[in-house]
Every structure is written in C-alpha cells, then in structure tokens.
Amino acid sequence: MNTFWLKIAGGAVLVVGVIVGIAVFTSSEPEQAREREPEPREKTVYDQWEEDEKKLSAEPQYKEPPATTPSVQQTTPVAPPKPEFKKLNEIEEIQAQQLWEWVKNQRKMGRLPIMGYGQMVKTCRDIIQRWPESEYAFYAKRALADLPERYHKMYNITKEEIDLGNLK
Questions:
Q1: Which segments of 27-86 does DSSP mark as H helices, in order?
Q2: What are φ and ψ of residue 167, in 5° steps?
Q3: Taking a C-beta distance cutoff of 8 angstroms, is the pair 123, 99 a contact?
Q4: Which among 36, 46, 85, 130 would be 20 to 30 A from 161, CA to CA?
Q5: How high is the mean pLDDT of the chain?
Q6: Do 86 and 73 meet the contact criterion of CB atoms below 8 Å apart?
Q7: What distances in angstroms separate CA 57 from CA 13, 43, 144, one per listed residue?
C-alpha cells in the first residue's frame, strides 16, 4: 500500500498547526488593550427611527404643573395631571390612529436620503383639521414642531400649526 502521500498530508497538517499555534501565542494583546472600553458604535438610521418613535409617541404632559395653593401641604408627591383631550367616537379613533401610523412611517422615510417630509406634513395638517382638539392633533403638532427649521420654511409650516400651548 502506498503511504507516501498519506505521510505528506500528515506533515502538511502538522506544519499548519505549528504555524497557527505560533501566531496565537505571539500576537496576544497586552492587558491594557483588553481592558479598554469598547468604542461607542456609530448611530444608525434604525437608532434614529427608534428615538423618533419614543419622542413622538410620548405621553403629553404640561410644561409646568398647574399652580396649586401654597397653604395646602401635601405629604405625598402627586404626578402632574394628564391633559384632557376631546374623545373621538370609535370610527374617528380608528381613522386617526391609521393616519398617525402613516405620519410615523412618513417621518421614518423622510430621514432617508432623497426623501422628503411632504406627505407627513400633509397628513399632519389633515389630522389637525379633522380632529383639532384630539390627542392625535397634539401628536401631529408635535411631529411638525420637531422638524428642522429649514423644513418649516420649505413646507410653510405656521406657528399655529406647531403651537402646543402649555403642553410638551
């Protein structure tokens, strides 16, 4: 039986193993390099979308809590009251939710290169016009106010469209 080629293959495997072993032991990093903190990763468009989602869908709150009488002493901390919005009927609520989801998706698309915020602005204006005293009108105004200033000029966004009153 011819074992010549088998001996050559075994020798090659042994040589490769020795080279890998030497490389592993000679290229170890010093202790200081291993203890460094990992570099912060670069912010991606997905991170920005997640940030926008949190910011635009946050619960509305008053900028400053309503004034209380100083003579009343409260022992427990009281959360600021939630603003009251006009209640929509079931059909209007569903329509407003659908349009608000459209706004959030258009906001994401507007952040991409070559895309714009035109459809988002149009839908926000539609929400504000159809349900002016609703929670969705507040969200739409906040979405318009959150756009950079150059888009306010580009889409002729007025102060009334982004006025949140005493809410944030």
A1: 31-35, 45-56
A2: -105, 160
A3: yes
A4: 46
A5: 82
A6: no
A7: 60, 21, 13
Q: Which two tokens stand for residue 93?
A: 């609520």
CA dist list (Å): 82 to 59, 60, 135, 166: 8, 7, 11, 12
CB 65 within 8 A of CB 80: yes
Contact 166, 133 (CB under 8 A): no
Phi, psi of 37 (to 5 degrees): -75, 145
Tell me how far apart the alpha carbons of residues 116 and 156 are, in angstroms, rounded to a whole number. 14
pLDDT tens digits for range 63-72: 665 555 555 5
Residue 56, pLDDT above cutoff 90:
no
pLDDT tens string 96-129: 999 999 999 998 888 888 888 999 999 999 999 9
Q: Tell me phi and psi for residue 63, to 5 degrees.
A: -65, -45
Distance CA 157, CA 151 (A): 8
Per-residue pLDDT, 65: 56
Distance CA 16, CA 166 (A): 72
d(Cα 55, Cα 76) in Å, to the nearest integer? Answer: 29
pLDDT score, position 123: 93
Closest listed residue to residue 139, CA positions, set 90, 85, 89, 64? 85
Best CA proximity match to 131, nearest among 83, 98, 93: 93
